[in-house]
Amino acid sequence: MILQTNGLTKTYAGGGGCENISLELNRGQIFGLLGPNGAGKSTFVKMVVGLLHPTSGSGQLFGLPIGTAESRRRLGYLPELFRFQDWLTGMEVLAYHACLSGMTMTQTRSPHMIGRFKEVLHRVGIEHRGNDRVRQYSKGMQQRLGIACALLMDPELIILDEPSSALDPIGRHEVVQLLESLRQEGKTVFLNTHLLEDVEAVCDQVAFLHQGKLRAVGPMNELLRHGTNWEIHVGGWFPELFDAVSKKLLPGLTFRMKKSDESGEAVLDVTARSREQIGWMNRVLIEEAVTIYEVRPVEGRLREWFLSMSGAQEEFRT
Ligand SMILES: Nc1ncnc2c1ncn2[C@@H]1O[C@H](COP(=O)(O)OP(=O)(O)OP(=O)(O)O)[C@@H](O)[C@H]1O
């Protein structure tokens, strides 16, 4: 096991933080931690890398207590809000990070290390800018440099907090490819991100944080299979029913009209947290004298899952 946390909790003075997080991360996995803004994702990661002291709970990295220098030796980390010394060149930033990892300046000037700096810059696609100062980099290039810093010492575990937030679609695609190549090399990756397409493309395991609490964790295929999206084909539908039905729904249960025609036949696209909620939806429809012709699950997508887990109460009308 690479990472294990037991009831990890951080409570900030003004509230917020995260509560009682127990997670396990196995070697070779790409793990995606999802959640809306302010859910507590960065707080969790900061405790794991030793930047924040937990209020309670514990964790082990490589079997060593989190927060210790020893537990960090095999770890590469890209913080969410990174700021580099913008008067340094990309190569110099990497040399500085090598020194932070325990090397001397003389060692960073060895042909081996110069080669390594060029290699990681190449890996993130900015090798041609290595001798330019960081202040001349775009935000996306700085983010790429941050990923290069995380990979620099060839860590076994790479923790990336929002690695693609400043990248254009090509850059994001390249990050997904990079993550896949890291997995092929047997590395383990922990990813905090809002970019659901990236998570869908690459993660094996997904956890969902909401208001500081862990709401779900498991293999992505399994979580999506527990399908949150259903189609209900009905008869006897008329537009005024939309509000009547909406008023009776439970948190996490939402629907939109997918199709409807003048004869009163309609297809409702329903997002639910559980099968029981679909039972409730059927009951509500029957109470409104709607005829149900067919109820069937639709293969889930991460976006729908994310919205239903967040308890999004938005209803869409088409
Ligand atoms: N240093 C701090 N002091 C006080 N409260 C904080 C601090 N850092 C974060 N918080 C609060 O803790 C909660 C979780 O914040 P955190 O940054 O961990 O969330 P997040 O899921 O990473 O959000 P985002 O996706 O927006 O980066 C929020 O309510 C936030 O306001």
From TrEMBL:
Residues 3-236 form the ABC transporter domain. Pfam families: ABC_tran (PF00005). It comes from Paenibacillus solisilvae. Belongs to the ABC transporter superfamily. The keyword ATP-binding applies. PROSITE patterns: ABC_TRANSPORTER_1, ABC_TRANSPORTER_2. This is ABC transporter ATP-binding protein. It comes from the Bacteria. SMART domains: AAA. The lineage of its organism: Bacteria, Bacillati, Bacillota, Bacilli, Bacillales. One of its GO terms (molecular function) is ATP binding. Keywords: ATP-binding, Nucleotide-binding, Transport.
